[in-house]
Amino acid sequence: MKKLIVYTNIQDLKLQQELLKQSDGISSTLMMFEDFYKKMVLFQDFKKIEPIERVFLLHKVCSELKNFKALNISLKIRDFYTQSRDIFQLFHDLSYNFISFDSFYKLKVYDGFENEMRILEDIFKGYVDLLTKNNLIDVSIFHFDFEINDYFIDNYDEFEFHIDKNLNQFELFLINSIKKEKKLFTKSIKNINNNVNSYQVKEKLEQVALAFELIDEMTKTIEVDKIAIILPDEKLKQLFLTYDRGKNITTQIYFSSNIYFKLINKLLAYIDAPNAKEDNLFKKFDIEVNNFLLKEKIDIDDFFTILGDIPLKTVSIKELMRSSLEGYLLLIQEWLFVWLEMIKNIKVEDENGGKIKLLAVNEAIYHEIEGVIIVDFNEGVVPSTLARDRFLNSDLRKQLGLPTSIDMQNEEKKSYIKLINHAKAVALIHSISSSGIASNFLYELGVKNSISKEVDYNFFYNISLLTPLIKPQKIEFNAFEFEWSSTMLKNYLECKQKFYYKYILKIAQRADSTANDGQILHKVLENLFKDRSFYDDEQLLRDNLKTLIAQEVDDSTVSNIYKKRLWERKLEHLVSKQIKHFSDGWRVVAREKRVYGEIGGLKFKGSIDRIDQTPTHSLVIDYKSGSIKKVNSIKKFENLSDFQMNIYKELTKKTLSNVEFAYIEILDSGDLIKVDRMDEKEEYLMEHIANLKATKTLNLEKRADIHNCNYCEYQLLCQRGAYLR
Fold it and tell me: In this structure, are residues 335 and 78 in contact, taking their beta carbons and an 8 Å threshold?
């Protein structure tokens, strides 16, 4: 008796292999379901289309459809390359589940839905016709004739299937086509591993330090090469590699991390928005950028001639593109985009040579793992929040018998449970920064409580090639020697080290020859009211804004042209809301007003963007080019460090009466948001000033919370942010 046992989970297959070694029973062959699938299906004698070519064939079909625009999918190749995945996914789901487009027309869903489906049906028919005409098969879509491999079936007397995932209708058809004795087992997974600990840290970065600490513990009872860190979010991968000073980690590295890839990606950005400052970078790598600034479309051979030498690992991709895309004409930046998309996922050998695995959960099932550390075990991350289906919502998928987002999340949960159940020790880590909470999945795993951990921040700095400018020390301090501003006070409250560098040592940050966007917009708005105190004509206000922006931002780069158009659109709300503001009687009486005075015995100064008045009231305004949604949202004033408006209040109380304070969101909304709870904030301001006056020495220590260090101009001196070692 010959028996074939088919699994959808490789760990179950490996376990069965061990059991078979110890038995002398029936001769059995073990096989993964994907291998069973390949052996069962015999295709007609057509060539399988390459993934890159299918995108261009689909693009050709869509380009010829007059009503394609109704799908709101761009035909620009760089956009279409990504958005076409939604179309292919729909075709896959429908065709392999034997669902015809006619099924949709009976459903009452939303206006325009039937029209969308008819367009997609035309695309499907056109794409399949084009495949047939070119003697091609796209195996991701069920459109082909095939035969069941009876010879393969005849090799076995009995079949056994162990299924623990959703199968599509075609896969079920293959199983049912076997007329011999067969057994089908669907595995119900229950969490039986009680050796699971959950840990909670404050900051996302702290998970890295804790993970390495837990690895040290695990190595006492588990072999190093059987320990793995599981990454639900790939963004943490680089952090783990950065702090893996002992080179103990091994992981899958992709070509997107290669210097060549980054350079070509930089070149693509340069073509989109030329910047003379970057010319030297390309000269250093012998890249003649002028060769890439072509306006006309070129073929694939001309593209590779211009591209020049390429890394050895990408040669096969080059040949594949040349054979698949012969005859297509694209702009050079479109060819570069396709080239980068094709090479970014080439697997590169991991040079670290470590033994601790760094894996995604879908990679973990192929490894024997006894010690599991899963980071980012936060709600919304585990299980992952799936991207919205462009064409089919969950209700539609349910009606059609397709897996819903909940079904797919449950599949992901199964992967985690299988991983956990095969392990001897499991640690789940989540952070509570940015309002993060532990995943509700914890409760399904039977984990009721999490252990709060304080990590040792020395982990991040115990090896460094840099020497900080100063070492932790105490220095003499006298608050009366300074003329304070809101920014200066904010720096003092947030980081004494930064305050020391900036205001005591007076280390200036690197000067930038160009103004940033916020500075430009502030200047535009200052000049907008240079010769007038209000506007009552919306078009005049709009035209003056446009003229002033043109004076500050020239058309020397594509980026500048785009910026001007973007600002003109985003300032529309500001125009209408300012007209309404002035119709209520407000008039501009001051711009960039310098104010000076004493607050609680300390000297203060400030620069107010704008002061408006009516005959009876005053309004102090500060422009914000970013979002101001959080202006009034702070709950704990003891953590507040920005007292800008309270300082303005104190410095203007002798000159302004009936005064209110507000921010204007320049871009997007144009809203004027008044600052509330000023009196409560004032109490904390006065408390800080009292503490300042009483402080005689500054304790210079690096702050424990390093969230803001990424944006600090002194991070090199502190070995923080991008300079962490």
Answer: no
Domain ranges of the chain: 2-44+145-186, 47-137, 196-252+350-457, 256-348, 473-509+697-723
Helix (H, G, I), strand (E, B) or coil at 660: strand
Q: Which residues pair with 182 in a beta bridge?
A: 159
User: Of 310, 211, 216, which Cα lies nearest the Cα of 255?
Assistant: 310
**How many CA atoms lie within 13 Å of 402's alpha carbon, on the beta-carbon side?**
24
Count CB neighbours of 558 within 10 A: 13
CA dihedral 258, 259, 263, 268 (to 10 degrees): 10
Write down how long the chain is.
Answer: 725
Residue 342: both structure tokens together? 């094709």
Grouping H, G, I as helix, E, B as strand and the rest as coil, residue 133 is helix
What single string gives the DSSP state of each residue in 242-276?
HH-TT--EEE-EEGGGSHHHHHHHHHHHHHHS--G
In 219-368, which ranges are continuous DSSP H helix?
A: 237-243, 259-272, 279-284, 300-307, 315-324, 332-343, 361-364
Looking at the domain covering 196-252+350-457, what would its CATH class be? alpha beta
pLDDT of residue 463: 45
Pairwise CA distance, residues 575 & 525, whole Å: 11
Assigned token pair, 583: 């119709």
SS3 118: helix
Given a contact cutoff of 8 angstroms between Cβ atoms, the answer to whether 562 and 588 are in contact is no
pLDDT of res. 243? 82
Q: Which long-range contacts (CB under 8 A, 24 or more apart) does 490-496 make?
A: 490/641, 490/642, 490/643, 492/692, 493/641, 493/688, 494/641, 494/703, 494/708, 495/703, 495/708, 495/712, 496/698, 496/699, 496/700, 496/701
Q: pLDDT grade, residue 349 (50/70/90)?
A: low
Least confident of 244-248, 323-327, 566-570, 600-604: 244-248
Read off the pLDDT of each residue in 139-168 and give the average, rounded to a whole number: 88
* CB 476 within 8 Å of CB 627: no
Spell out a b/e string for 314-333, using b for 16 or more CB atoms within 10 Å of the CB, else e: beebbeebeebbeebebbbb
Pull the structure tokens for residue 283. 């000269």
Q: How far apart are CA 373 and CA 217, in angstroms?
A: 12
Question: How many CA atoms lie less than 13 Å away from 225 in the CB half-sphere?
Answer: 4
pLDDT tens readout for residues 491-532 = 999 888 889 889 988 887 655 545 678 888 999 999 999 989
| C-alpha distances out from residue 520 to 486, 517, 524, 527, 573, Å | 21, 5, 6, 11, 19
End-to-end CA distance of the chain: 61
Q: Is 609 helix (H, G, I), strand (E, B) or coil?
A: strand
Instruction: For residue 401, give both structure tokens.
Output: 């018998």
CA atoms 703, 707, 713, 716: torsion sign: positive
Report pLDDT digits (tens) over 66-80.
899 989 899 999 999
Please say whether the beta carbons of 430 and 198 come within 8 A: yes
Distances (CA, A) of 319 to 204, 300, 310: 43, 10, 12
Is residue 432 within 8 Å of 204, Cβ to Cβ?
A: no
- pTM over the 0.70 mark: no
